Amino acid sequence: MSQIGITHSFDLGDGRSITLETGKLAKQADGSVVLRLGNTMILATIVSNKDAKEGIDFLPLTVDYQEKYASAGRFPGGFFRREAKLSDYEVLISRIVDRAIRPLFPDDYHSDTQLMLSLLSTDNDTLPDALVGIAASAAIAVSDIPFNGPISEVRVGKVDGKLCINPGKSQLLNSTIDMIIAASASDILMV
User: Best label site of 47, 78, 111, 122, fewest CB within 10 Å?
Assistant: First the structure.
């Protein structure tokens, strides 16, 4: 069985490129995308109920970002052999994505919606927290869920007096600015 996916890459301007691929993984989801930057890979999947529940006047959106130990080549040992609840860091990343995409759903869209973001692999220098918004937006864009996007999310650092996009961990040690910005084509959604 051949799995043919659709791939799109774009350059960050410093020799690194982000690749988005859909059509190979999570085919039963309404939308799924694998984002890759270097050795960092994030799987974003979204599913939504076709009909809204009676009496709901808000968007019941759940966003879960999860990092597995195995994505960094580590495996939990000792008493706790399985992954535990979401860490505070994972909850904060989930909130960053939620706050950026929630306003872009139509006001009358009230169907239960779940967005799962899973870190599949990572390297020691790339920070995945500024990439999950792009992956989430791409997954929604390839689905049939109504969305007034897409959005982009980027970490901005200032190293040696120059602004840089998505700096690595080593560059952030010398950075005087560290902020994540989410924006659509026309508006800044969150800083």
Answer: 78
